[in-house]
Amino acid sequence: MHEVLEKESCGVNQHKNAGELVRGLKARHMTMIALGGSIGTGLFLASGSAIHAAGPLGALIAYAAIGLMVYFLMTSLGEMAAYMPVAGSFSTYAARFVDPAFGFALGWNYWFNWAITVAAEISAATIIVSYWFPGTPPLLWSAIFLGIMFLINYASVRAYGESEFWFSSIKVVTVLIFIAIGLLMIFGIMGGSTPGFSNFLEGGTPVHGGFMAVLGVFMVAGFSFQGTELIGIAAGESEDAARSVPKAVKQIFWRIFLFYIFAIFIIGMLISYRDPLLLSGSLDNVAVSPFTIVFERAGFAFAASVMNAVILTSVLSAGGSGMYASTRMLWSLAKEGKAPRWLAYLDRRRVPVASLVVTAAFGLLAFLASLFGSGVVYTWLLNASGMCGFLAWLGIAISHYRFRRAFVLQGHRIDELPYRARWFPFGPLLAFAICLIVICGQGLTTIQEGRVDWYGIAAAYIGLPIFVVVYIAYKWKNRTRLIPLEECKFHE
After folding, report:
1. pLDDT below 70 — which residues of the chain?
2. Using an 8 Å Cβ cutoff, are 248 and 51 in contact?
């Protein structure tokens, strides 16, 4: 009798959760998703050009400021995600605590951002593979990599979690080895002369290029850190969000410090910012990654091949995560009635297949656009997505500020929260201010010596008017308003 009742109970629960995603992500998956989202080509390649542009101290200042902003944003997101774990994450939070139109615009903005990222990562992967297989058709490799990303996401959320865990582990081990070898070289233990702080003091100042150079690195650093907010999306499929989200968020600050600040410090100590190799670090020239340069100077003959393999895993990781994030966001929008209802379809394994297929198809079309017409369409799509991440961060700061105020106003106690963001309201307000500065400063780097690059300005800001148009259109059609704090809903 007990077994019969238990089976009936399970059947009721399965029916009740039939329209929901599977909570299959473990704590270790959540931790690596939070970590892996911020380690990639921004650290392995772009860090070199950042030091070349602003000097070692200028790069450190920019990355530290953006790192502080991201830390506060993640604590804000962590507080909301631990209390309200939903796949729509900050789109849902913005719709409940700010304005439904704001949530609508943020959701589609974020879907577009990561769907384009899938195409960008496919393009990057084909370039990386040509290092080993020159002359092979890019369409072949693009099909293979798109297939890998699709299958990882189609299999199950657990498959995505496992792939991200191992991809991120490779990146973490690489950075840790780099830091260890770099320290040995700095102290002269691996032979050679000890550089001391000579590279930092080169040229009479450790900050090269002045304020505009540092501002330019702000942009690079901002793009490098994009992806850390994936933990908010993944919270909707976490086995125990109340415990795993706070654990992952708490580790972000130290990992940002260790993997970015410390790595850039070591690069600045060992390589002159005037070294022309730092400027030419790109996906089609991985041999001049600052990581490769340090490894080769330490005597590792196969450094370029090893780093090429690591960067390939980073690209596949970013592409898989992009497909995961955009699929879940599209599914959440459909479930909330902000996208066609058929996109909310889940198969028997409760995988959002319809949203996955549409996202993969859009990524494929964007990639094909890069092969025709000199890639003009693709370039503008990338430019439009460039600001999307910053707009999402801005939305997180605004949503958390109103979330906490509404929570207290409606009579809740702070100790009811599974995780509490420290330094409120200073944290979200500071993150909002820095993010706004970065957004407004996008086009300043296109102004050089009194000349205004109008094409560059249009490319830098194209994402902003698109966001505003989507926001206003939804607001006008549905007559939405700013939600009073006393009317904000914490549960359905």
Report:
1. 1-19, 36-37, 191-194, 198, 203-206, 279-288, 372-378, 382, 445-450, 492
2. no
- Residue 363 is classified by DSSP as H
Q: Given its phi and psi angles, is residue 346 left (phi above 0), alpha (psi -120 to 50 degrees) or beta?
A: beta
R_g (Cα) of the chain, nearest Å? 23
Query: How many CB atoms are located within 10 Å of the residue 12 CB?
Result: 10
Q: Report whether 72 contacts 424 (CB < 8 A).
A: no
Write the DSSP symbol of residue 376. H
CA distance 267 to 289: 10
Whole-structure pTM value: 0.86
Report the chain's terminal Cα–Cα distance, integer Å. 35
Which H/E stretch holds residue 108? helix 100-129
Note the pLDDT of residue 1: 42
CB atoms within 10 A of CB 1: 5
Q: What length does the chain have?
A: 492
CATH of domain 25-482: 1.20.1740.10
- Torsion angles phi and psi, residue 285, rounded to 5: -145, 60
Query: 154 near 351, Cβ under 8 Å?
Result: yes
Comparing C-alpha atoms, which of 60, 106, 443 is closest to residue 267? 60
pLDDT of residue 16: 43
Q: What is the CA 415 to chain-centroid distance, rounded?
A: 30
In 410-492, which ranges are continuous DSSP H helix? 426-440, 454-461, 463-478
Q: How far apart are CA 197 and CA 219, in angstroms?
A: 26
| Residue 277: CB atoms within 10 Å | 17
Helix (H, G, I), strand (E, B) or coil at 238: strand
Count of CB atoms situated within 10 Å of the CB of 276: 9
Relative orientation angle of helices 210-225 and 426-440, to the nearest 10 degrees: 110
SS3 content of the chain, % helix, strand, coil (to 5): 75, 0, 25
Q: Is 412 exposed, middle or buried (0-12, 13-18, 19+ CB in 10 A)?
A: middle
- What pLDDT sits at residue 430? 94
**β-strand pairing of 451-452 with 447-448:** antiparallel
Query: Residue 447: beta bridge partners?
Result: 452
